[in-house]
Design a protein that fits this description.
The structure is a homodimer of 288-residue chains.
Chain A (H helix, E strand, L loop, with lengths): L3 E5 L3 H12 L5 E5 L3 H9 L5 E3 L2 H5 L4 E4 L6 H8 L8 E4 L5 H11 L6 E2 L1 E3 L20 E4 L7 H13 L3 E4 L2 H27 L4 H7 L2 H6 L7 H10 L1 H23 L3 H22 L1
Parallel strand pairs in A: 1-2, 1-4, 2-3, 4-5, 5-6, 8-9
Antiparallel strand pairs in A: 7-8
Helix pairs in contact in A: 4-5, 7-11
Chain lengths: 288, 288
């Protein structure tokens, strides 16, 4: 296992890992590193971390596990900063929403030590952010995807698997490109669809009237349009190729549906809606 | 006011009107008419209605208000069936999701008596359906839209307004076509977008993997894809013109967004996402 965990970014994601580990036995020493002194101090006073550090050399001393849980744009900067302090047994992982880009960063920044890096993506989140939003059970029963490549050390994958299992997560592994293709379809595309709808309606002359009469269906459909614009800009750009593919496929599906409507094809529309409705209902049952 | 209300369709919508009226004073006699003897009997035993009728002539005797709360395809059939029993003071209204089509039905079926018909659309609903799902407060604080045209009698509009106000609704009036344009944008389009996404994903070879990793954002975004396929087929066909216009506008918005992504226009994507996020957040606050 590991004795000292350094977490870069002690917000909802990193803080919840810390909280979960502190529930178990053999809790490692947990050191938080962050850009915001306020967040670090809050994480310390909430007991999420044992020590708050701004000096990376000091934070990394004897660290055998590093978790990067910052906005993904910071990942290469952090990898570069920690490289001088890595030993051959340090394992590094992250929690970003895209994985091909992160695997490239690791190769570029860590060189031969890139095989000690295991990309990770916990499929869990909450409305709120920051250390105060951290939850002991955020990862319980949630899917955690690790994305080793051909060069990743099996021992490193084992250690990161153990980390997430201690948080209650259900760990599976995928190729980085396969991960990005799956999440382009089930997460990144829906976010872009919701952003596009709300942005378009907001620009209309009768926007006030439209939003006045928007109700509960609209509320659920557009909840993800309230997501953090900077984070989603970075995700969209990081997963650009897969996301453009998904947009093309979806535009074709919309055109096909519009053609059914144009032709007043009642049977065709019914089949499409019924297939979607049945699938969605079955899926919701399987998840509950 | 009115002394005898005949409700066609005693499910969630009609049943909740009945329940709400029964909370107040001057409760009219409420007669339920329906195709399903089971539903009618349940509405009677739950106390939603005072009498259950299958004979329209008997049901309509001395009725001064008729509410049609059935699937909208039945509306013209019901209008034709009740016409012989209407007096010059009977007011007829409905609760369908589309209004231009219903106003045309009223004109076609009722002739000169069409001016006693007031189209209505309560913007309220719930996951469940049937008389057992009826709620006393379903309409409290909810928007109710009435769609009179140039021929509708002002007294009829006043009476239907009073009906919904007694249920706690916030009544406003719109032209039928304006109603359908607004709801094409904020309700019908989102439903079709969600149906199209789920149907498309369900048809893929890796559908099982995709749905395995779909999480809470997907859950909310696609909730409306679990809606009733027959009802939504009818809504889509009834509001075909406005909905096709909305699909065209949305496809253009998606193409513009894809162009920003294709060009890696970080600033353009940020502005689009930020406008959507701010609008959605402000809207949610205004509604809570």
């Amino acid at each position: 296992m590991f004795n000292k965990l350094v977490i870069f970014g002690v917000g909802l994601i990193g803080g919840s890992v810390a909280l979960a580990l502190k529930q178990g036995t053999h809790t490692p020493l947990i050191v938080g590193v962050g850009r915001s002194a306020g967040n670090l101090q809050e994480a310390l006073s909430l007991g999420l971390i044992d020590r708050a550090e701004t000096d990376i050399a000091h934070a990394m001393q004897d660290a055998d596990m590093v978790l990067i849980a910052t906005p993904v744009a910071q990942t290469p900067v952090i990898l570069r900063a920690i490289k001088p302090y890595l030993t051959s047994s340090t394992v590094i992982t992250d929690a970003g929403s895209t994985k091909s880009d992160v695997m490239v960063y690791a190769q570029a920044e860590l060189g031969v030590m890139a095989h000690q890096f295991v990309g990770g993506h916990p499929i869990a989140g909450a409305e709120k952010s920051g250390p105060g939003a951290a939850l002991t059970d955020l990862y319980v029963g949630k899917n955690i995807i690790l994305t080793p490549n051909d060069h990743t050390l099996p021992e490193a994958v084992q250690k990161v698997t153990a980390l997430w299992q201690r948080c209650g997560g259900l760990v599976s592994t995928m190729r980085p490109e396969a991960h990005d293709a799956v999440f382009a379809a089930v997460s990144h595309l829906p976010h872009l669809l919701a952003f596009a709808l709300v942005d378009d309606l907001a620009r209309r002359d009768n926007a006030e009237q439209l939003f006045k009469f928007a109700a509960s269906g609209f509320r659920d459909f557009t909840r993800i349009a309230g997501s953090h614009p900077e984070m989603w800009r970075d995700i969209a750009l990081a997963n650009k190729t897969a996301l453009l593919d998904e947009l093309t496929v979806y535009q074709r599906a919309l055109s096909d549906m519009a053609a059914l409507l144009e032709a007043s094809d009642a049977q065709g529309l019914y089949q499409l809606f019924a297939n979607a409705s049945q699938t969605r209902t079955d899926w919701a049952k399987s998840k509950s």
